[in-house]
Each structure stands twice: as C-alpha cells, then as structure tokens.
Amino acid sequence: MSGPQKPTGPINGHLGKAVQASDLDGNDLPPSPAPSSPHPGRRYNIATELVYTEGHDQYGASSTPIYQSATFYQNPNGGGNEYDYTRSGNPTRTQLERHLAKIMSATRCLAVTSGMGALDVITRLLRPGDEVVTGDDLYGGTNRLLKFLATNNGIVVHHVDTTHPPAVHRVLSSKTAMLLLESPTNPLIKICDIRDLSEAAHAANPKCVVAVDNTMLSPMLQNPLDLGADISYESATKYLSGHHDVMAGVLAVQDAGLGEKLYFSINSTGCGLSPQDSWLLLRGIKTLGVRMNQQQQNCQRVAEFLETHGFKVRYPGLKSHPQYDLHWRQARGAGAVLSFSTGNTAVSERIVGGVKIWAISVSFGCVNSLISMPCRMSHASIDEATRKERGLTEDLIRLCVGIEDADDLIDDLQRALVQAGAVNVTPGDFQAFSNDNDNGNGEGSSREHTARQTQI
Ligand SMILES: Cc1ncc(COP(=O)(O)O)c(C=O)c1O
Ligand SMILES: N[C@@H](CCSC[C@H](N)C(=O)O)C(=O)O
Predict the structure, then answer these.
(1) Active site residue ranges
(2) What reaction does this catalyse (predicted)?
(3) Which CATH class is domain 289-455?
(4) For 325, what's the count of Cα atoms within 13 Å in the CB-facing half-sphere?
(5) Which of the four CATH numbers 3.20.10.10, 3.40.640.10, 3.40.50.300, 3.40.710.10 does domain 13-286 have?
(6) Which of the four, 107, 125, 350, 382, has the lowest number of CB atoms within 10 Å?
(7) What is the block-wise mean pLDDT of the chain (456 residues), using blocks of 10 residues?
C-alpha cells in the first residue's frame, strides 16, 4: 500500500488527477484521488493486516499524519496535485480507505460520516419504481430510511424473513434493484445465507445490487464481498472504531464502476469522512483484532450464563441458535451482541435499571459493555404495530459485550436479574420464570414476576 502521493505533474490532461474525467454514466467527475486499493485482496492474515500499513510519509511518521486542510495548492493551469479539495479527497482519508480495502476484501473502499450516511449513498443508486427486498428484522434507522424512500421516492420495499430463503425467492424479480441484508440482524440476531440470497438476487436481475450491512461482525469476522455481495458496508461507529469517539461509515466494493457511482454521490453530497475522524478510525482499526477476540469470548460466557439459567438467548455462539451451522459456514466468529427475553417488560426494565457496569446506551462495538431495550431505544422509530408483527417484543434486552472482566459482567447481571425478580431463586440455583405465559409481546406473567420481586 502506498501513502499519499507526491505531485507528479499533469497525469490526466489539465486536471492532473489519477482519475478519468467522467463516470460510467457519462457524468462529469470532479477531481478526486485515485481509486483506493493499489492491489486487490489481502496478503496476510486478518490480524496482521489490521495493524500492518506501508506508509511512505516524507518524514517517516509511524502514525498517518492528519491533513487538516480543506483545500490544496494547484498549478496556475488548475492541475498538478492529486488532491484539490477535501470534500473530493484527502490524503488521510485515502490512507484509511486503502487500509480498509485490504481488510474488507475489496478493490475500493470509501469512508463517510456515519453508517446511515453509507446507506444513504447506497440508496442513491435507486430510481423511482425500483424494488428493494430486505429483512423483517433490521436496524431501526435502516427501516426508517427505507420507509422514507418508499413514502417519498417511489421505491417499493418488501420486508421478508431472510432466514427463510423461499420467502426471499418469492419476492425477487427483474424489478428487484437491491437486496439489502443484515446478518446477524439487529436486534433479533437472525442469520441469513448471504451466498444463496446473493445468487438468487443476481439470477432474478443481473443488475441487482446486493448490499450487506456487516456492522454486527466487522471485517474481522465476516467478508460479505467474498460471499457474493456487491457492497459491504458498515457503521464504523461500532467495532471498527471501538471507543465511541467517532461517527463513521464505510462502503466496500470489488466492481470499479460501482465504486465510481458511490464516490460520485459522496463527492456530490459532501459526506466524505473528515481528516480527524479518518485518523481516529485508522487508529481504532489497529486494535480491532484484540478487542473483538476479547469481546466475543466475554459474550460467549454471558450467553451461556443466561441460557443455563433458563433465558431464551439469541446468539450465534450458542448451538441452540436456529441458524448456528449456517452462521459458522459464512463467518469466523459469533460477534459480541446478544439479545434475550424475560417474557415481561416491567421485569426487563428493572434489569436494565439494576445493572451497574453495563451502561444503558444505544450503539455497540465499544470496549465497554452496554445494555438496552431495543423497542424503547435503537428501534423506537419502528411503530409498535410493525414491531409486534415482526416479533420484536417489548421485553427484549440487548447486551453489547465489552472487554471488561467476564466474571464482573456476569456478577453484575446476576445481581440485577435477582433484584428484578426475573429468576426463581432456590437453594443453590436460580432459573428464569417460564416464558410460557408470555403473550408474545413481553406482557406475560407479570404477576408472577412482581410477586417474586416483592419477596426479595
Ligand atoms: C446494523 C446497523 N447498521 C447501521 C447503523 C447506522 O450507523 P450510524 O449510527 O453510524 O449511522 C447502525 C446503528 O446506528 C446499526 O446498528
Ligand atoms: N436516536 C438514534 C438511535 C440510534 S441506535 C444506534 C445503534 N444502531 C444501535 O442499534 O444501538 C436514531 O434514531 O437513529
């Protein structure tokens, strides 16, 4: 990988930029840096690639310099340098994009101001009348943007259960312009067969763009482009950065033409990632391997603890997960987000309110552990009736596990479960109250739970 390039004189006529003057649709392109990755694919194992960079800084700086400059000097004829303006391209952002391209199995990667910004760029490929096929469990913000496009831009959106391939195949057609997948989904941790669904979408319409939101696993654990997707994107606010100190989104592609179209939107709308945030993200990525390893080890312990004590836990590290085998065919780890039900919303509220180490917060992928109730927080923008239809019950608790000591995390959770009356305590053991009375919306067995709580 090469670092920011030195001015080399006019490369491409008077523009002097290593890029063609128009995109594949014939739109005029403003000056921009060269496509991100100078070589396709990875050369080392992922843990090495996350850390290893070949910078060619003129002073030998070990950390990529932050080019905090909005504009760049040019020759009198308007050419000369690779960069002219930071909205169009910035050396720190290019360094990040080239680094990401390696680890995302891409030939080109683009960095933008948030995960939703990345999805906005992707959905700008759509035209009125286009159809989008997507899941019935999705991050709330993704659902909100799709609903906006369906309401205002003439896009037809089909929400189907992506764990059930025939349901997806049934709605795919020559009008399907985009298949948008999450695996695992946020927050019900459903797994879909990315390869099979990508093939089916391309068979239905060879021009269909398959976009996979890889936020839950990060490129450390899953590479959708290797599974047949056209775009892998994620909220880099989560695992890639890892410290909740930056908002960012990344998009990765293997097809140069598609990369140009995405870049065109980014430059036109001005959502490229700032130099400071690009630097923060470059720094965060270096520790992704160690963070993710620790986070998923801790998450496995927490998942087993909850399941052993009778809770219905959704986590692909557990053999009880309905798509366990599929998940391990396409991913290299289970990630560090799980969700579980108590069968009673009031009890769930008391658990969330009772923990000390687990911070009540949206987001995930940070080094510290978080707890949330998706229906009240990350998925509140989905109306109640739709949530209920999709099996997103009000009592659902989502845990995003960090790098703390796993025993401390479990002790804290155990204390909150007992205090909340979520478990039936017997000498030497405690078990979750049965969810048998649960009416499917987290309202069941409330008297049982309340009674239990008052005894403690
Ligand atoms: C799965 C998923 N995709 C995309 C996003 C959007 O990312 P951002 O918050 O960085 O815009 C989020 C969370 O916000 C998410 O959970
Ligand atoms: N108020 C925000 C909520 C962000 S949720 C962040 C993250 N994706 C998560 O799942 O926790 C909004 O309405 O977008």
Answers:
(1) 87, 139, 213, 238
(2) L,L-cystathionine + H2O = L-homocysteine + pyruvate + NH4(+); an S-substituted L-cysteine + H2O = a thiol + pyruvate + NH4(+)
(3) alpha beta
(4) 0
(5) 3.40.640.10
(6) 125
(7) 33 37 47 42 82 79 92 86 92 93 93 98 98 98 98 98 97 98 98 98 98 98 98 98 98 96 98 98 97 98 98 98 98 98 97 98 98 97 96 98 98 98 96 65 47 40
